[in-house]
């Protein structure tokens, strides 16, 4: 299993997207986000995605030279078209605009249409939290439907992720970032690359039968919502916020795709930063101070596991499964680059 430094993996990733037609700055933005996802321990949203993104470029679903554009805005809001740019480029553009508006005016709401796959939402919400902005972000069905509704026997929703990040002046952002499906599709692909089985009760095969084999999902199966009716209800709300509310279906080429919905708020809107920081530290301390249950060493807060993996991988490097690296090398070869396999 090859191991890369952050800089090495960023350079490799950027070079692939440059070869696929992206300008240097856009290729670097994609590389920064994908590698940041690896640093956080979420390999499902890292370079594993390169082959599918290159295929989407070939198929015309992603325009590597495109740049997002504001279609309409007020001091507190904006409607953005991603113009089918690389999704990480669009995610960064939308997040940065929401951050700027929230810091200038207290709160902001930003919506995006014509958006390609952005990947892990915490890459964008954490970016806000590190600038003292609270951010809530949801995306609906951005690819083929792959999740069944509660009580249903066919897929109609995406993984419909939800992310919220809170600034933490004393450390890493406190971040919730979850798929509303029982498992993210990318984590199914990671399990396949690692030759691992899935947990029970997260996928059904194409015949509607329970399975723990990742290939059964990739061969036409579908995901289940997490937590039964609760995860399903959250998925529906993500779908409605990022679809009908913002009018995603009204824009060309958005067939079966929702958009992005972002709400951002200056963390100092209601109280001084020092008061917020003190209260946050006190409450997090109370939560983490609870005695651990049997089988646990300690109580963690959301975002803490990622912060620990980030520190470890910054020191020791980022491991890439052999199957993933082989697929990336093949994808690079398809755009004229030769990587050592």
- Count every beta strand, where a strand is a DSSP E run of 2 or more residues: 12
Give a quick account of the main beta sheet: strands, pairing sense, barrel closure: 7 strands, mixed
Share in helix: 25-40%
* End-to-end C-alpha gap: 11 Å
> Nearest-angstrom radius of gyration?
20 Å
Mean pLDDT: 94
Q: What's the CATH H-level homologous superfamily of the largest domain?
A: Malate/L-lactate/L-sulpholactate dehydrogenase, NADPH binding domain
**What general outline do the C-alpha atoms trace?**
globular
Strand order of the largest sheet: 2-3-4-11-5-6-7
Looking at the overall shape, the CATH architecture of the largest domain is: 2-Layer Sandwich
CATH class categorisation of the largest domain: Alpha Beta
Structural class: alpha+beta
Low-pLDDT ranges: none
Summed up, the domain count is 2
- What is the helix tally? 11
Report the order of strands and helices: EHHHEEHEHEEEHEEHEHEHHEH
- Strand fraction: 15-25%
CATH fold name of the largest domain, please? Ribosomal Protein S8, Chain: A, domain 1
What does the model show?
The chain is α+β, with helices and mostly antiparallel strands. The chain has two domains: 1-65 and 302-341, Hypothetical Oxidoreductase Yiak, Chain: A, domain 1 (Orthogonal Bundle); 68-182 and 224-271, Malate/L-lactate/L-sulpholactate dehydrogenase, NADPH binding domain (Ribosomal Protein S8, Chain: A, domain 1). The chain is 40% helix and 15% strand. The strands form three sheets. Strands 2-3-4-11-5-6-7 form a seven-stranded mixed β-sheet, with helices on both faces. Strand 2 (69-74) and strand 3 (77-81) form a beta hairpin. Helix 1 (6-19) packs antiparallel against helix 2 (24-39). The longest helix has 19 residues, at 87-105. The chain is globular and about 55 Å long. The termini are close together.
